[in-house]
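Same chain as my last thread, 164 residues:
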Amino acid sequence: MDEKDRDVDDIRREPDRTPHSGSSDTTQTFGHDLDLSFVPFGADLTAVERDAIQALPARAALLLVRSGPTAGARYLLDTDVTTIGRHPEADIFFDDVTVSRRHAEITRTGSVFEIVDQRSLNGTYVNGERVDRAVLADGAELRIGKFRLNFFVSPLDRAQAHGA
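reply #2:
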């Protein structure tokens, strides 16, 4: 073996001594950068969606799916806890890998709704900001995986909140 071949063999046998930066814990976000941008939707409600919102009883809310595989779907929030995720038993089932099995819960206390992230991989966003927990305002935009939704409260609760 000549000198050149021996040097290459020695290099291959040397253990990797390169220092590793950062911690060993990593978080991966699946999707495209475009999925992470905030685009408000509130102004483009259809007549059917406006009617559905107007018909909401007190202490109820409505989620409208604005984009994602189930765009156009509507979900009535009329219980104290609504689960959202990829688990088949979730109250709102989103069958997509960008959604965790137990992604988030929407809780109701009186006529106030709050979203609580359940330690999901890709996070829960309200109006473009990642949140662990947030009170939902009328018209708020939620992002769960690749799904974008708008949240609307009952007009009866909205009127009561404004003192009408």
